[in-house]
Structures are given as structure tokens and as C-alpha cells.
Amino acid sequence: MPRRGRVKKEGPESGEDSDEYRKRRDRNNLAVKRSRVKSKQKTQETVNRVSELRNENTVLEEKVKTLTKELGFLKELFLAHASNNVDASKFEGVNFQKLFEDNSSAGTSNDNINNTS
Amino acid sequence: MPRRGRVKKEGPESGEDSDEYRKRRDRNNLAVKRSRVKSKQKTQETVNRVSELRNENTVLEEKVKTLTKELGFLKELFLAHASNNVDASKFEGVNFQKLFEDNSSAGTSNDNINNTS
DNA sequence: TTTAATTGCGCAATAT
DNA sequence: GATATTGCGCAATTAA
């Protein structure tokens, strides 16, 4: 990136008579203001975006927690029932072992159902 | 917030001899640079934070999706079994109706178990 | 080429 | 008193 900024402090070097020069300076100064306002807005929006995302994140984490609990509850229910007096045939070959393994990252593939009959 | 920035273009007004003045100016210019570097770093970190949060968010959303599917699968399993030929007594008073209502936002309160026997 | 937008830099007022 | 921030203007560069 090439050099920028003032190096010398000469007078209106880029221009002609002070008249046109000033017009150009004034216009540029306005452009600079616009640009800086825009820049600050963007920064602020980014900061706000962080807040939004943190909120969404919290909600999602709670949701995961809740779902995990529900799932755990159902699994316990199943297992309790199964270990006590299961009539496994009624579930038509559902492989509970596999179903209740740690499959947090698994989809709902029907690998859990093997027609063992 | 009060006025800032140059208003006049006088010479070393805040100071004394050009010597001490320049020293002060130079030190301030360095401070300005440090301050602006820091500012840009902070902005960049905020931008990065947004990326991180978006990633976490995606992961969490997938997790919710997976868990929801698993839960749905178990519920269907339950219901299918229940509607076909349930021997509900084996579940010792579990209220399937309530259990399978939309309780995404509910905890794992044992309200689902009512000793109806 | 002309004009607007960005950006590095310095000044001075102000904030800490 | 010294450093840190910040509004503002200048000029160089870049983008339209």
C-alpha cells in the first residue's frame, strides 16, 4: 500500500486559484464525514450482531439441554421397562441396545430397527 | 459532548518555545497511533467474534435438529406400540398423552408420571 | 477525466 | 502532568 497522508505542509498544491481549491476541499471534507459516519455505523452493527448471536446461542443451548433431558428420560423409561419384564416382540425387532447407545451425533437412521423376527 | 478539533489554525498556542511544543506533539502523535491501532484491533476482534458465534450457532442448530428427530422417533415408537396392543400397565401409570404432548419447552418434570393405578 | 469514497496522518480539545 | 480518545481537516490513493 502506497504512502498516504500529508508529507509536506505546502499550500494548495493540487489546484489552481484558492477558489476552486476550497470548493474541492469542502466537498472532500463532506465526503470524509459521510465515510466516517458509515464506518462507525458498520462497527456498531457488528457489535449489535454479537449481542444478538449471543442471545440466540443461549436459547439454543437451553433447547439442547431440555431435549437432552427429555431424551434421557424416555431412554430410562424404555430401559426400565425392558429390564423388568419386557415383551420385546411387541416392538417388532427394535434394537434397544443400539437405539440407546450414545448416538447424540447420529441421525434418525433406521439402523435401530432390524427386523430380527 | 463539547467541541473538539481544530477551530483556528494558530501556532503553538498551548505551549511555549517550539522545542517543548514539538516534543509534546510528537508524543501525542504516537499516542494517537497507539490508540488507533488498538481501536482497529478491537473492531477486528468483534468481527471475528461474529464468525465464531455463527459457527457455534450452526452446530447448536444441528444438534437441536438431531435431538428433535430422535425424540420424534421415540415418540412414534411409543405411540405405535401403544395404539396397537398396549399393555399400559407395564409402564406403571405413565401418562403417554401428556408425555407426548408438545413439551419442547418443558423440563423433565415427573408430571408425566401419574400413578393412575 | 471528473467526482466521490477511503485512509494515513497530524493537530488540538478533551477525557481519563 | 501525562497518556488516551476523538472530531476535524488535508492530501494521496482508489473506486465509480
Describe the overall structure.
2 copies of one chain form a homodimer. With 117 residues, chain A is an all-alpha fold. Helix content of chain A is 62%, strand content 0%. The N and C termini of chain A lie far apart (74 Å). The model of chain A is unreliable at 5-15 and 103-117 (pLDDT under 50). The structure holds a DNA duplex (16 and 16 nucleotides).
Could you tell me how far the N terminus lies from the C terminus of chain A, measured between alpha carbons in angstroms? 74 Å
Structural class by SSE content of chain A: mainly alpha
Order of helices and strands of chain A: HH
Helix percent band of chain A = 55-70%
**Biggest interface between protein chains, with counts per chain?**
A-B, 39 and 39 residues
**Outline type of chain A:** rod-shaped
**What is the mean pLDDT of chain A?**
73
Q: What is the C-alpha radius of gyration of chain A, as a whole number of Å?
A: 34 Å
Task: Give the quaternary arrangement of the chains.
Answer: homodimer
Strand percent estimate of chain A: under 5%
SS summary, helix count of chain A: 2
Main sheet record of chain A: none
**Uncertain regions spanning at least 5 consecutive residues of chain A:** 5-15, 103-117
Number of E-type strands of chain A: 0
